[in-house]
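[Meeting: bench + compute handoff]

Bench side (C.D.) handed over the final construct sequence. Compute side (W.E.) agreed to return the predicted structure before the next meeting so the bench team could plan truncations. Sequence as handed over:
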Amino acid sequence: MSVKTLSATMATLLLALSGAQAQADTPNYYECKGDNISVSFYDKSYGIGSSQLNFAFGNKKYTADGKGIESKATTLGTVTSTTIKFMPDVEIKKASFIIPTINLGVNSLGEVVSEAKFTSQLAITTIATPFIGGPYIGVVNSSKYFDLTCKASLIFIHF
């Protein structure tokens, strides 16, 4: 019996003993690449330390952690963002990317799924905040979108 067959057999046996049809975990690490762009995000939900979000646009790099990361659940998935530029009374620039809902684990066939590939987009949004009397006229939140190919996985940190 091969190691893969043995693992699948053991997983199936464990599922049968637990009475569940499948087990699932949410990934906590995401890596994405696009045209001259890279994004990585570690979500501390399943670990220690703090969440960390990294963006690279060519040779410009941005890092955010903890409270500098915003996450909002939507029907598209979780929009994860950070502020990359703040100029009072002029503009705020945010970098955001979408993480779809993903389950990893043992599927109903007993196969272990340890990573998932998906496509997403990175949005660089400029929020106009000029110091003027009255409301800003024009597109207030203009965005540029970049296609990404991504991989989600579940990592564990041990000391």
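W.E. noted at the follow-up: Residues 3-153 form one domain. C.D. will use this when planning the next construct.
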